[in-house]
Amino acid sequence: MTTAILSALPEEQGSLVSALEHPERIEHAARTFWRGRLEGRDVVLALSGIGKVAAATTAAALAERFAVRRMVFTGVAGGVGDGVQVGDVVVARSYLQHDMDASPIFPRWQVPGYGEARMDCDAALSALIFEAAGCFLATAGGTFALKDAAARPPRVHQGLVASGDRFVSTAAESQRLRGDLLAAGHDVLAVEMEGAAVAQVCRDHGLPFAAVRTISDRADDSAHVDFPHFVRHVAGPCADAIVHGFLRLL
Ligand code: SAH
Question: Which residue of 73, 174, 178, 192 sits with most ligand 1 atoms within 8 Å of its CB, as the best mutation to test the pocket?
Fold first, then answer.
């Protein structure tokens, strides 16, 4: 039963590739896939690339060419929900595409052909990810270099994550995005650029999907400074710890 572990950027993949036992490198669809064993489990590691189309291409290859049985996405995201701070972890309960808008033919955010805006993550898989993330923060959370000395220890949140082909990098855009969605009953915790696409591909293929995102920035006017710093220094160790912990729980 092979598990796919996806990340958007090489830094988010951390040192998972070098930890693989019996690593096999496979080039396919202009991407590099790594098959091997991690924590005694069969895995395929892949970079989704940035954005929904790149992520969907990778996810479709994992489903069809590699016949994986479940997919897990690890990476970073911008926090938009109240109290979702840099260094916190968000486990997705469901996903929507914040830039999907076929109105007035379909309600705003609804994915045409699917009858709804949200794609749910697999509850059982997400519960394991949640547990792994909690263990990680409990043991290593204090090591986060949070800028704000008064900041509370990092927390794990679970809820709705929104994906779109935009790096959200102003407070005005982040507030508008959150406010518009909230008015329609969608309380978004974080934004990123890939997860909803992978959720949709997994739904099409009947594959369980879970996603965990460490908050690299607040999707505000300092996001362009916070994001690269976090990706360079924190994202890799977070992904390593959460993925290893998750595979041990599996
Ligand atoms: N120039 C950057 C581009 C990264 S885009 C680079 O190549 O290093 C941002 C990535 O981090 C995406 O994969 C997205 O999923 C996630 N992300 C983090 N913060 C985000 C934000 N505020 N808005 C959108 N995506 C964000």
Answer: 192
